[in-house]
Amino acid sequence: MARHGASIALLDRLDTVADSATALAAETGVRAVGIVVNVADPASIESALDRVAAELGIATILVNSAGITSGNPALDTTLEQWTKVLTVNLTGTFLVSQAFARRVIAAELAATVVNIASMSSFVVNIPQTQTPYNVSKAAVAMLTKSLAIEWLRHGIRVNGIAPGYFASDMTRDFVKANPEMAEEWIGRIPAGRIGEPHELGELLVYLASDRSAYVVGQNILIDGGYTIV
Ligand SMILES: NC(=O)c1ccc[n+]([C@@H]2O[C@H](COP(=O)([O-])OP(=O)(O)OC[C@H]3O[C@@H](n4cnc5c(N)ncnc54)[C@H](O)[C@@H]3O)[C@@H](O)[C@H]2O)c1
After folding, report:
1. Catalytic residue status for 214
2. In a domain, 7, yes or no
3. Structural domain contains residue 157
4. pLDDT tens profile 128-164
5. d(CA 64, CA 94)
6. Does any domain span residue 136?
7. Residue 119: phi, psi to the nearest 5?
């Protein structure tokens, strides 16, 4: 997004997010701010979006990407673990979208939302066990469709991306803890490799921009062919 000239507000619970924004601005030349937020906390979201508006103007593109995984088999999953995954992945996506939409509607601006779901919205990944994660991502896909219908009349276009396996901190940590996993994953991917973040970025730019003006409420798979075999 930055390489295409967008000003960027990075919102994350990590306290390194301001440094990430500074590095992004230096690399790309765009304006960028990093703001600590907890997507599960409405007050934290409100103050983060206020800061975005004060520093960069009201945001008109929202990418909901905050997410956590779950590792336990369903039989051993506690209510606390279940609730945590659903709260961040699903409720967090809803709360941030709602706060964002209220602002752009009040300002009578056109906007786009892109929700990062997962191919786990559609298939059960194996061999890992991650029932709460799969359920949360399936729900994010329906949230995307529902918000797309409710908000189209307000000039807000909502779509989703459903990635397969991509190189990120999340997958690196997971593979480190479960080294045999990467081999098994790659064996199941027709493309024969894990995706690189820049390959997903192009789709994100497309969905966030007017070039996709007639794409509404879709959850677009980008998975190296994983889900077609
Ligand atoms: N990497 C993959 O293979 C893959 C595949 C499919 C979907 N996804 C999805 O893509 C998104 C990004 O994942 P990633 O792989 O880059 O993982 P990641 O762990 O690198 O990034 C997720 C980010 O979410 C942040 N976060 C977690 N809880 C938060 C909270 N309560 N408030 C604010 N921020 C919070 C984390 O600090 C982290 O920076 C996630 O929604 C994930 O489910 C990833």
Report:
1. no
2. no
3. yes
4. 999 999 999 999 999 999 999 999 999 999 999 999 9
5. 9
6. yes
7. -65, -20
**pLDDT tens digits, 39-87:** 999 999 999 999 999 999 999 999 999 999 988 999 999 999 999 999 9
How many Å lie between the centroid of ligand 1 and the Cα of residue 203? Answer: 17
139-147: Cβ within 8 A, 24+ apart: 139/86, 139/90, 140/64, 140/89, 140/90, 140/93, 140/115, 141/117, 141/219, 143/90, 143/93, 143/94, 143/97, 143/115, 144/115, 144/117, 144/217, 144/218, 144/219, 145/217, 145/219, 147/97, 147/101, 147/113
**Distance from residue 196's CA to the centre of ligand 1 (Å):** 15
Residue 109, helix vs strand vs coil: coil
Cα dihedral 35, 7, 99, 101, rounded to 10, equals: -170
Residue 27 lies in a domain: no
Q: Residue 112 belongs to a domain with what CATH number?
A: 3.40.50.720
Distance 169 CA to ligand 1 centre (A): 8
The DSSP output letter for 166 is B
147 contacts 113 by C-beta, under 8 angstroms: yes
What pTM, to 2 d.p., does this model score? 0.97
Average pLDDT over the chain reads 96
The letter for the amino acid at 172 is R
In angstroms, what CA-CA distances link 45 with 12, 23, 92, 139, 187? 10, 23, 9, 21, 40
Q: How many domains does the chain have?
A: 1
Cβ–ligand 1 distance for 44 under 6 Å, the answer no
Range of the domain at 178: 37-228
67 CB within 6 A, ligand 1: yes
